[in-house]
Amino acid sequence: MYALKDLGLSPATIHRQISAVRTYFQFLVGEGLAARDPSERLESPKRWRTLPTVLTLAEVERLLAAPNTDEPLAIRDRALLEFAYATGCRVSELVSLKVQDVLYEQGLARIFGKGAKERIVPVGRRALGQAALYAREIRPRLDRGKARGVLFLNARGTPLSRVGAWGIIKQTARRAGIAKRVTPHTLRHTFATHLLEGGADLRAVQEMLGHADLATTQIYTHVDRDYLRTVHKQFHPRA
User: Fold this and answer.
1) Which member of 5, 16, 114, 222 is catalytic?
2) If DSSP codes are grouped into helix, strand and coil, which group holds residue 109?
3) Residue among 161, 17, 29 at smallest CA distance from 95
4) Of 11, 22, 55, 201, which has the maximum CB count within 10 A?
5) Mean confidence (pLDDT) of the chain
6) CA distance 178 to 173
7) Mean pLDDT, rounded, for 185-205
């Protein structure tokens, strides 16, 4: 471990190395090739939790406006982007969303998360409008009987994959001229950050994100730092 630290490797990389060693010795003990596991007492380095990449409101507006909606698939892309930002759902939840899971009249969506846990998330008017346009005008043209009821389809008429959704978001971000690395999770981070910046309750955001532990949601409270700096500068006599 000290040798790996001296090489300047990150805690995450060292953690993976240790995990491999532990797995190897567990195998040796399990096969009767070793009497004990010498890696048992190894302590993994603490991994610093990095703050997620977040888009500004202006960047979100550019991203959502980037698809050329004169093209049929671009209408799907716009609906997918709007829905991802409106709900903060994970990419796996986004690509498994069924047509009947979008409750237009109630302004809600049924999201099925990890462990098939269901949660209800509000959806804004813009996202609902784009989803309705896509579902009414474009999806029927794509559906060739292999859609399995899934809302977002690829050009072959089968459910859009996680990789497919990732590619759409990456290409659209490039078209929008956004220099940051934008992934489906970036939109999830941005959703949570913008809600908290607007004064949303942390537990409400936890519920919408589908986090089992409030501590997971608390990473997004980093947004308060800018506000605190502003207050300090404005009111502290020696700021």
Assistant:
1) 114
2) strand
3) 161
4) 55
5) 87
6) 5
7) 89
State yes or no: is 41 an active-site residue.
no
Question: 63 and 34 share a domain?
Answer: no
**Does 90 participate in catalysis according to the annotation?**
yes
- Given 76, 90, 139, 189, the catalytic residue: 90
Query: pLDDT value at position 41?
Result: 78
The total of structural domains in the chain comes to 2
**Residues 106 and 14 both lie in one domain:** no
* 97 in the same domain as 24: no
* Domain with 40 in it: 1-48
Q: Is 2 a catalytic residue?
A: no
List, for residues 125-182, the tens digit of each pLDDT value: 999 999 999 999 999 999 999 999 999 999 999 999 999 999 999 999 999 999 998 9
222 catalytic per annotation: no
Residue 117 is encoded by which pair of tokens?
């846990």
Q: Which one-letter amino acid corresponds to residue 11?
A: P
> What is the mean predicted confidence (pLDDT) over 4-32?
85
Q: Is residue 82 part of a domain?
A: yes
Q: Look up residue 78 and give its two tokens.
A: 């716009």
Pair (122, 23) in one structural domain? no
